[in-house]
Amino acid sequence: MTAVSALVLAFCGALVYVVDPFFHYHSPLKGFPYVIDNQLTQNPGMARHMDYDSAILGSSMTVNFETDWFMELFDLRTLKLSYSSAYPKDISNILSKIYEKRSDGSANDIKAIFLGVDIITYSGDINETKYPLPGYLYDRNPVNDVNYLLNKDVLLNYVIRPVIAPEPTNLSHVYASWWTDEYYNEEWVLRGHDSPKKNTVAMEGHAFDEGIRQNLRTNIIPYIQNHPETEYYIFFPPYSILFWDDVLKDNRLEATMNAYRSVCEELGGFENVRMFYFPSLKDTVTDLNNYADYTHYRPDVNRFMTECFKDGTNEIKDETDIEYYLALMQEIIDEYDFEALDEKLEYYHQ
Q1: Is residue 30 part of a domain?
Q2: Structural domains of the chain, count
């Protein structure tokens, strides 16, 4: 390598270090128009170096929360650290960064964690992540930081482009879904949905329970136990009736209901945990005009859930409550016309 090449590389690395678009070394520079659009690469740095006292965690079910709502209702400086299709291990990985000491030796003072739990991802391997992690951004090994400092994509798209064409990300809306209002309609949802074939053999009623217990005990509960100063708001997102149609066709209704019970049994004994059940919001889940696909709902639903966290609506306080909400869910399923739904699906897939 020539001296000129070495100088160019050193200059590029220095630019990335100073701007630090993934916040690996320091908090954001005042006035720089940061673009934040990559959960895998930018979440760990934000967790370490942003100024916040609460966080929103979970899958894409959480991306349409606006953090300004949490300041309005709770007086909390909230940071959104969602991961699309997050597995429990993904949640554990980011929680470890949230509670990691800062470079100056101080610790984040975390008052609240708002965690969406998707039961469909909580019964798998306890070490599985949705996507391979860029380890050099999650560890403290300075040697492999060359993958960040001398990364052409980082330099061009996160350092130079924002200077040339600044479009800074609004942190309150960070990672929000691309769907605009016109995508939240029944026809769009039905056209895009592929139903499973009917399964004549019922899944064993407790098929998910052990996996859920192991994931919670390995990836979630240690943080709850070790940080009693943090209040955990655990909530179940309201998937559309199409999700429940799939559950019925897969013949796993009992197993799915028991999955909710398993989460509540594991987390219900902690004083710093509050739980909320939203799948039984009948007017929401049965109206496909509230969805852009079979699980993703309008931002208005996120706002409603935020208000519930504040006023306690739909809260699960004991075993009686979860049985009440599951009974409501069962009632919705029993009363819904799934044959008419299948006819619509067939029509849109001709």
Answers
A1: no
A2: 1
